[in-house]
Amino acid sequence: MRVAVDRGRCCGSGNCVVVAPEVFDQDDTDGLVLLRRPEPPPEAAERVRRAVEVCPAGAIRFTSTTQP
């Protein structure tokens, strides 16, 4: 699984960081999403899927055809 973020769409809600802190972080300067692990480990798949679902701006997406 691969994941990507669009900082231009991010609204800085931080939901992704709460759900999957091992994969996402927030920039200290502007509060926007930072992708820590573009290829999350298999054990994080469910949390990443949830982060995609709860992102109010739709700034997180899967980049491979295989989704969890």
Automatic annotation (TrEMBL):
Give a single Pfam family match: Fer4_15
Required co-factors: [3Fe-4S] cluster
Q: Which domain of life is it from?
A: Bacteria
Please tell me whether the keyword Iron is annotated for this protein: yes
What InterPro entries does the record point to? Answer: 3Fe4S_ferredoxin, Fe-S_cluster_ET
Q: Does the keyword Transport apply?
A: yes
UniProt entry keywords in alphabetical sequence: 3Fe-4S, Electron transport, Iron, Iron-sulfur, Metal-binding, Transport
Q: What GO molecular-function term can you cite, just one? A: electron transfer activity
SUPFAM superfamilies recorded:
4Fe-4S ferredoxins
Query: PANTHER family, alphabetically?
Result: FERREDOXIN (PTHR36923)
The entry's function note states: Ferredoxins are iron-sulfur proteins that transfer electrons in a wide variety of metabolic reactions.
What name is this protein filed under? Ferredoxin
Record organism: Micromonospora haikouensis
